[in-house]
């Protein structure tokens, strides 16, 4: 090796001496923590004791529940896995036909039972619930009591 080649060789190996450990540490720090399989709804509460209204469809059962103090709760039971993974529930008055003025209740994902508390000011005599796909922006189904 000639002198300039030896000097260049030393510079490259010196750079690699710093870059390789830095790359290893950076790669180790950039590893993401494992994602836990959590449902995107509040922690499951117990069902309120009184069933006020109930509607059963082919793929799900919807109940409006209450207790003695007047608190209300929506119980949504999926019998099968949803064909649309991006389903959310909206609530509106029975007279309204779209979700423009509807109130977001919550998101449902897989087979199982979901409980959603309903606000006292949002309770109508006969509420209507929409199952809405927010990715495709279309109403999948509606439940009218």
Q: What share of residues is helical?
A: 10-25%
Number of strands: 8
> Biggest sheet, strands in spatial order?
1-2-3-6
Unreliable segments of 5+ consecutive residues: none
Largest sheet: 4 strands, antiparallel
The CATH topology of the largest domain comes to Immunoglobulin-like
**Discrete helix count:** 1
Q: In the CATH hierarchy, what is the class of the largest domain?
A: Mainly Beta
Number of domains as seen in the coordinates: 2
- Strand percentage lies at 35-45%
Radius of gyration: 28 Å
Supply the helix-strand structural class.
alpha+beta
Shape type: elongated
User: Kindly, what is the distance between the CA atoms of the first and last residues, rounded to a whole number of angstroms?
Assistant: 89 Å
User: How do the helices and strands follow one another from N- to C-terminus?
Assistant: HEEEEEEEE
What is the residue-averaged pLDDT?
Answer: 85
Q: Can you describe this structure?
A:
This protein has 145 residues and is of the alpha+beta class. The chain has 2 domains: 1-31; 50-144, Sandwich (Immunoglobulin-like), CATH 2.60.40. It contains 1 helix and 8 strands; from the N terminus they run αββββββββ. The chain has one helix at 3-29; strands spanning 50-56, 60-66, 72-78, 87-93, 103-108, 112-118, 127-133, 138-144. The chain has a 4-stranded antiparallel β-sheet, with no helix packed on it. A hairpin with a 3-residue loop joins β1 (50-56) and β2. It is elongated and about 90 Å long. The mean pLDDT is 85.
């Amino acid at each position: 090796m000639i002198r300039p080649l030896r000097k260049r060789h030393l510079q490259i190996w010196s750079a690699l001496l710093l870059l390789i450990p830095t790359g290893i540490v950076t790669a180790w720090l950039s590893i993401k923590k494992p994602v836990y399989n959590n449902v995107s709804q509040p922690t499951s509460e117990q069902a309120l004791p009184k069933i006020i209204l109930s509607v059963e469809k082919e793929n799900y059962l919807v109940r409006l529940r209450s207790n003695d103090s007047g608190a209300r709760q929506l119980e949504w039971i999926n019998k099968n896995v949803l064909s649309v993974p991006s389903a959310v529930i909206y609530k509106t008055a029975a007279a309204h036909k779209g979700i423009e003025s509807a109130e977001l209740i919550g998101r449902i994902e897989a087979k199982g039972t979901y409980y959603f508390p309903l606000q006292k000011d949002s309770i109508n005599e006969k509420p209507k619930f929409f199952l809405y796909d927010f990715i495709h922006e279309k109403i999948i189904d509606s439940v009218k009591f």
